[in-house]
């Protein structure tokens, strides 16, 4: 069987519930817990994970090396990504269901990357809390698999210039970071001028499950978004932005573009920032049509 390509559409929904696992017992479970405060996602996995779930490390599998020029979590090279997943026992013919303990905040990155290249992948709605049975502890391994490297779909990616000029630019970070009131990790506070703030946790209910698609659609439409193809989404480093990208798809609004470098890349430049609750004014474009 030929591996899927980025131009193909995945078949399964972006978000699935617990029943999906019963109906698809061969699906590969991926635990993608990760913590901004430095706690170990791997230790959390060892302490208890869904039966058969492998641990996928955000920093080493789902991102390339961090640099000021590329950001804290640049996209991994396709070859490195494929190699790492194959070593974990994930094949490009597998159906992958990923979860974490934060409503998909980090697991969404794996799901979005896989769907980007045509591999069937979805978030488990409710994450580890959706599992009602006993958890496994300790190491879980799978036999090595075959995963063919293929390039990221360029149509789903935005550059720093796109993020500075696109009609709809969405910042998925918490409001305090967007407004510039605090910045725990990146070089300066604020947001990209012209960006609106749609924090990703607002996609979830109190049980960390996604809001119904019609409610999600209304949330985005209230912000002026009726077609995701015209939208660029960013966050701190291109991770939680994937949650909004999947939420837009779950809401039936289509597929938006990710700005992978996100604020961590932008804030390392001399480009202007905006602060406060308003999107802010974009600077005039240079003669070449690019805002600086």
From TrEMBL:
The keyword Transferase applies. GO terms for molecular function: thiosulfate-cyanide sulfurtransferase activity. Residues 23-137, 163-275 form the Rhodanese domain. Residues 283-292 have a biased composition (Basic and acidic residues). Keywords: Repeat, Transferase. Coiled coil: none annotated. InterPro entries: Rhodanese-like_dom, Rhodanese-like_dom_sf, TST/MPST-like. It holds the Pfam family Rhodanese. Residues 269-292 are annotated as: Disordered. This is Sulfurtransferase. It comes from Propioniciclava coleopterorum.
């Amino acid at each position: 069987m030929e591996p899927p390509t980025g131009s193909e559409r995945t078949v399964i929904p972006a978000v699935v519930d617990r029943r999906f696992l019963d109906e698809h017992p061969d699906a590969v479970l991926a635990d993608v817990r990760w913590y901004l405060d430095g706690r170990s996602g791997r230790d959390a996995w060892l302490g208890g994970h869904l039966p058969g779930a492998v641990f996928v490390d955000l920093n080493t599998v789902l991102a390339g090396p961090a640099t000021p020029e590329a950001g804290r979590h640049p996209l991994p090279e396709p070859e490195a990504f494929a190699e790492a997943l194959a070593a974990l026992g994930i094949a490009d013919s597998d159906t992958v269901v990923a979860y974490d303990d934060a409503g998909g905040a980090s697991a969404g990155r794996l799901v979005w990357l896989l769907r980007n290249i045509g591999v069937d992948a979805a978030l488990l709605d409710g994450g580890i809390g959706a599992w009602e049975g006993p958890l496994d502890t300790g190491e879980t391994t799978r036999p090595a698999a075959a995963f063919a490297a293929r390039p990221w779909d360029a149509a789903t990616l935005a550059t720093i210039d796109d993020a500075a000029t696109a009609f709809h630019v969405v910042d998925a970070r918490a409001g305090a970071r967007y407004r510039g009131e605090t910045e725990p990790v990146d070089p300066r506070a604020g947001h990209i001028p012209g960006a609106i703030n749609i924090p990703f946790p607002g996609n979830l209910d109190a049980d960390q499950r996604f809001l119904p698609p019609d409610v999600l659609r209304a949330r985005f439409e209230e912000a002026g978004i009726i077609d995701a193809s015209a939208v660029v989404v960013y966050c701190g480093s291109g991770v939680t932005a994937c949650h909004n990208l999947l939420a837009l798809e779950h809401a039936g609004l289509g597929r938006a573009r990710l700005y992978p470098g996100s604020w961590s890349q932008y804030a390392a430049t001399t480009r202007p920032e905006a602060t406060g609750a308003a999107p802010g004014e974009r600077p005039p474009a240079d003669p070449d049509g690019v805002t600086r």
